[in-house]
Amino acid sequence: MEKQQVSKVSSRVEHLLQPFSPHLEASFAAWKDPFDPVHNPNGYINFAVAENKLSLDLLLEKLKHCRNIPPSVLGYDDMRGNESFRKEIAKFLETYFFHRSVDVDGIFCCAGAGCALDLLFQCLLEQGDGVLLPAPYYPGFIHDIEARARCRPIIVEPTGQHFRFQLQDLEKKLVECRHSGQSVKALLLCSPNNPLGFMFTREELENIVSWTRQNGLQLIVDEIYGLSVFSKSSKLVSIGSVLDELGDDVHFVWSFSKDFCMSGLRAGVIYTENRVARNALRFLPYFCGVSGDTQFALTQLLSDSEFVQNFIRENTQRLYETYSVHCSCLDKLGISYVPSEAGFFIWMNLNPWMASHTWESERELWRRLLDKAKVVLTPGEVCHSTEPGWFRCCFSAASSEAAKVAWKRVEQCIVHHQEENRKREK
Ligand SMILES: Cc1ncc(COP(=O)(O)O)c(C=O)c1O
Question: In angstroms, what is the span from residue 395 Cα to ligand 1's centroid?
């Protein structure tokens, strides 16, 4: 009998059968050979992964005292997160984000903010529905929208200053899509913003909510960098504090990955007031819950309100100092950047170092900095920048000392390249 050909994977996951992008591969390589001032001074300095390494000492010390688990932690519990964990999260959100009461029943814990977004898209949207996504964006959003929920990102290109979108950009895109028969069901916002480092004002959020409501769209606001506001003159305005009630159509996402430097613990939070979505969400975290051990440790951590307050103060001060070190290095090199007030990023213009104003030149520069300077940046192309030559630098991913080494290496690499070019031209 002839052998039937059996496909290796189902059609549900066929779209995942693609290699990692070169910029992800570069980060994997950098992880294997990381810079250390004493033990590996020639290692890679990786500014391409959104992590905060500046305050690990404070957390490691605290976590040592949060892991004395009782037997109950070893058993099954509510998959949304056990009650004590969700109660602590509710108090925490009330204090730092919402400044009003938060209903414990609207809190759903899962394995990170990426997972939280995926769950929301699965619950609220149909396969194939479009999600408006302002560019430049955090590249992982594409995966969060597409991978499991099978929704479609619809990129909105910005026309405002410093790459910021305006309401008319959203409107134009929505009209265009609806004219061509595409279904658009949601808008995904990120504030504080990855990669631009700005936050929406109260007025902007109010206008966006009235616009999404007029157009029957779900609004999902990712505030994962909400407590990483380092500018002395800025304050977070959370969507939870703008609206007295989120209603059925506005949803909040946060996680411990960034503000508490714990991307490896995989603990994210959804807050929704949509009762139907809540019913569905009761079941889904079974597939992607936070382990009992992690919930226990994080409950202990959050319940120490003095620690949390001091940690946020110290962490934002460290972010501010490291951001300032990068800015002065960039100023010395004559590189311009979009001023940032929160989050981990500097969005900077490396056009002066490119042979031409093209995506190809951007890729070539990225590769040269990676191979010759061993400095990893995120090329703007993967964030869907509207202009070649912009790069994202995650400044919190390494110490200020490493930052100085990195920019020195970059300078040497650029100078060397320019000299080589001059010799070749002669
Ligand atoms: C804006 C934004 N949302 C979500 C995530 C994913 O976070 P988590 O590690 O909690 O899944 C990231 C990670 O870089 C991010 O920058």
Answer: 16
Q: Judge residue 283's burial from the number of C-beta atoms within 10 Å of its C-beta, 0-12 exposed, 13-18 middle, 19 or more buried.
A: exposed
Report the run of H or E that residue 133 belongs to, with start and end. Answer: strand 130-134
Q: What token pair was written down for 26?
A: 């570069």
pLDDT tens digits along 181-227: 999 999 999 999 999 999 999 999 999 999 999 999 999 999 999 99
Q: What residue segments make up the domains of the chain, in order of their start? A: 14-57+308-425, 72-303
Hey, whose CA ends up nearest to atom 7 of ligand 1?
Answer: 113
CATH fit for domain 14-57+308-425, picks 3.40.30.10, 3.40.50.1820, 3.20.20.80, 3.90.1150.10: 3.90.1150.10
Query: Is the CB–ligand 1 distance for residue 289 below 6 Å?
Result: no
What tokens does 33 get?
A: 């050979």
- The CB of 34 under 6 Å from ligand 1? The reply is no
| pLDDT tens profile 224-263 | 999 999 999 999 999 999 999 999 999 999 999 999 999 9
